[in-house]
Amino acid sequence: xxxxxxxxxxxxxxxxxxxxxKIIKDGMxxxxxxxxxAGDSKAILAALAERGKTENIQVxxxxxxxxxxxxxxxxxxxxxxxKRMPFQADPILxxxxxxxxxxxxxxxxxxxxxxxxxxxxxxxDVAVIEAAYIERDGSIVPTTxxxxxxxxxxxxxxxxxxxxxxxxxxxxxxHDIYQAEDYPYRNVIPIVAPWNKIGRKSIPxxxxxxxxxxxxNKKDSPADITEPDHKTTAIAKHIIEFxxxxxxxxxxxDRLLPLQAGIGKVANAVLTGFKDSNFYDLTMxxxxxxxxxxxxxxxxxxxxxxxxSITVSAECYERVLGNxxxxxxxxxxxxxxxxNTPGLIRRLGVIAxxxxxxxDIYGNVNSTHIGGTKIMNGIGGSGDFARNAYLSIFVTQAxxxxxxxxxxxxxxxxxxxxxxxxxxLVTDIGLADLRGLxxxxxxxxxxxxxxxxxxxxxxxxxxxxxxxxxGHTPHLLEESxxxxxxxxxxxxxxxxxxxxxxx
Amino acid sequence: xxxxxxxxxxxxxxxxxxxxxKIIKDGMxxxxxxxxxAGDSKAILAALAERGKTENIQVxxxxxxxxxxxxxxxxxxxxxxxKRMPFQADPILxxxxxxxxxxxxxxxxxxxxxxxxxxxxxxxDVAVIEAAYIERDGSIVPTTxxxxxxxxxxxxxxxxxxxxxxxxxxxxxxHDIYQAEDYPYRNVIPIVAPWNKIGRKSIPxxxxxxxxxxxxNKKDSPADITEPDHKTTAIAKHIIEFxxxxxxxxxxxDRLLPLQAGIGKVANAVLTGFKDSNFYDLTMxxxxxxxxxxxxxxxxxxxxxxxxSITVSAECYERVLGNxxxxxxxxxxxxxxxxNTPGLIRRLGVIAxxxxxxxDIYGNVNSTHIGGTKIMNGIGGSGDFARNAYLSIFVTQAxxxxxxxxxxxxxxxxxxxxxxxxxxLVTDIGLADLRGLxxxxxxxxxxxxxxxxxxxxxxxxxxxxxxxxxGHTPHLLEESxxxxxxxxxxxxxxxxxxxxxxx
Lengths: 503, 503
Description:
2 copies of one chain form a homodimer. Chain A is α/β, with parallel strands linked by helices. Chain A is 30% helix and 18% strand. Chain A has a 7-stranded parallel sheet with strand order 4-3-2-1-5-8-9. In chain A, helix 3 (71-77) packs across helix 4, helix 7 (230-248) packs across helix 8 (265-273) and helix 13 crosses helix 14. The longest helix of chain A is centred in the middle third of the chain and has 19 residues, at 230-248. Chain A is globular, with a radius of gyration of 23 Å. At the A-B interface, strand 4, helix 5, helix 13, strand 20 and helix 14 of A face strand 4, helix 5, helix 13, strand 20 and helix 14 of B.
């Protein structure tokens, strides 16, 4: 075990999680590794949750993105979290945020590191970083994600390292660690293709800041893999057909352009759909690599994938970490302020596919808030990608909960992505290509192609009546949220009789 | 005059505007120079409007941004415009857009050229470009703006050039003409400081595409310069004090970082405010240079300004174009897909100051739509800058029209900038620094600092009652637009008695 601390002077820092966690004091800002459940702290944050059960301690916790092993829930339950950023996906934490018990800052994932470096956020007191091992120079070889760890290591006053012996030391080389210079001397980020590696293989760290090292041997929480259902399959089919048509029209080649896919079953279904297509030599410039990425690599369809984390099933985790000699030339993990940076997304011409909670007739997208008030997870990287993508695609099911909820609405109850940033909308019903269309044209196309039949007539009626009143973006403000309000009151967005509601 | 056509073979193309405009046919897409009234077509678009009076002809018109000399209104009046993009600021055109007679696409100004190059928009049939003169190689030396002219010249099937003899040939060298490569072979844009010049001095053009050349001698429409009033002065004071405090806290130096300022009197007031400050060696990385820019250059406060156009008063127009030897090392005009590109804005750490129509308690900003439906001008470059800026500042007056309108509201009626992209909000009442704050904290800060006293109590009540119902972003959807609706019904957002409305 100790040989994983190659800088021998650091070996004396090895301790237990219970001991190490004492470094964290009430009121501190903690920066922890972890990006969509990958490469997170398994020991220190768990020990912090334990402390919270018997002690009044509250911290601000920043991470890369969401954490695994229910740790956000345990921290929330133990009342340890005062403020959390930039992303979460935990049901217990979510409830406490929505109750107003815990403050949450929902940030573009490319921006958190920027905000720390520019002192626009409070500085990190203690960084907690999962490592495969520590290099002779004290630098850290991270594990299955990079996230914001480079920034946390650079800016934190004190650092706790968790060496996870479940992760083979052979991960050395799968990371590309690069940080932009400070203002006003910032230079270009010299990436012009997803496979460009421009940085170090380990995270630089001043060894004098290392206050404790703990050993763990726990795998990442596995991703929940659900088989595609008829809706996700339909969405994936619409998208693949759209790409095929773009190739026909010579707007894209059958190599497409680098793909970004948000997390979840639709993204997995779309990527899986490429397996039986004529597309080849595909690449990804994304934030998370899921099972489907490695399946596409195995099938020879995908040449290279760039992201900030690997979030996969237990089977895929073994497959990838057990065959790094096979996969290491096929992917790279970067800091999230590189994987998600606007300039690179535009420079590479990324095709971005992200999930909406709901969208409206003009193509504004709500990715985060149920009923306009209750947060689900957070905006994540969707804004980084959608705004700067070559093509920005959003997907959602047309209706859900026995069709009592329509996901295509007169007006979104919360706006994460404005119509300016949305090119293509897809539901299981169909695809609306909104490029080159003015708002009124967008509305008709969305009503024609995307809305569930149960809601089509009423949505058309809303739009027609709004147009009568006029405006570049016609709306009836007194009625814009009537579907949401009806759902709150009756449990259904439908205007129809009770009989029809339960059909 | 003819010596302004240095490629002699093109001299035979000289003709009248009436003759040249015949190249434009019904249904075509026309791309014209012109960015915020600078460097626009003076002859051809006017001749097109004339044709429209007696002929059924409708075109899609793309420009850099807004046009001068009321030409958008004349074209709209003559029923010549089918579709217009990416920006406008004309009262007649605006009305026709809001009536649904003319379609308008409101685009981030950095994106139009991208969308054309990637074939995500219909291609340009005819480009109309104002020039100072034509070089020996057929390339065009533009005038007071660059806008989208480089893209129009590259992609249009046919080109009409307007040589404006009002503009001295000495403008040669004030432009930096650079275009990114096509996908997937795009390289870095090698600008790391506002003063970097990376391109040619003229717009490349295949002379075979030139179908007509017309001569004009008309100045740009002058900018409307209004003296700062007590509100704009108050807003400017809050912002300058904020900067001074950032310097105190060592988050900024007294050189600040490159400034972007939206068009209008607040931006002018803020820049003017620097004249009597301790800041020095300031720079701009903006889209429009206004009078205040040149005043700051004259006062020695501003070292360099980068933008896509010069939109100034008649006096300042003479001063700048008549003294190019003095000013030419102090500023540069770039294509708008360079001046506004997200990657550069983030790389340079721009401080962005833009104007809001209204903002809400969470810091979402409406920059475009009156009452949620009627467009004013368009989003322009505000989204390019706000999203990627080091600091994103939005300003508006707290209340207007005898305080019958509050510009700080429970919920914006249209979202152009989400709370993720808004750091600082300023009204004449005060400034709210929202960095590092969760939504509920943002709301309280905005209510405390920005709202007009007449509306403070009711806004606090809305927020408090929304919080009781819960949520990460508490709202009462049934009441969110009640202030807008009250204004439609009563002519005032105030809940109070008629007596108080007229106080």
